[in-house]
Amino acid sequence: MADLPTLTKNQSAVFSALKQADKPLGAYELLDRLRNTGLRAPPQIYRALDKLLELRLVHRIESINAFVACNHAPHVEPAGFIICDQCGRAVEVKILDCENHLTSSARSAGYRVDQVRVEMRGACAACRPPEGSGSGC
Ligand SMILES: [Zn+2]
Ligand SMILES: [Zn+2]
After folding, report:
1. What distance in angstroms lies between residue 132's CA and the mean position of ligand 1's atoms?
2. For the chain: N or C, fewer Cβ within 10 A?
3. DSSP 8-state class, residue 129
4. 116: helix, coil or strand?
């Protein structure tokens, strides 16, 4: 964490709210949590989020329109997410090999790929009914 960029007061307030959250937060949930810190207007939140996204300190999970702090920020590799449908917790997963596979399929279909988004839905270990562990990759 030594070489994290310097953040403004608003940016670091948003970033630490996301780090403390146990699940991805939408802009209005962030606003709720940050009301006491002087952040009152949605544009302040959005501006801070834009900068944090640009610095790759947070990720946007588009399918649920929410944001999470990155565990390995600043993040340069592509990241995917698995989101629990019951409690809303999300975990970042590596998708580098998967992305190469997807983009080469797209290219052989004649497309240029601008963005790859991998967002899986499911149930986390805490929400999943116990069963024989059938994890495999
Ligand atoms: Zn990340
Ligand atoms: Zn869960």
Report:
1. 30
2. C
3. P
4. coil
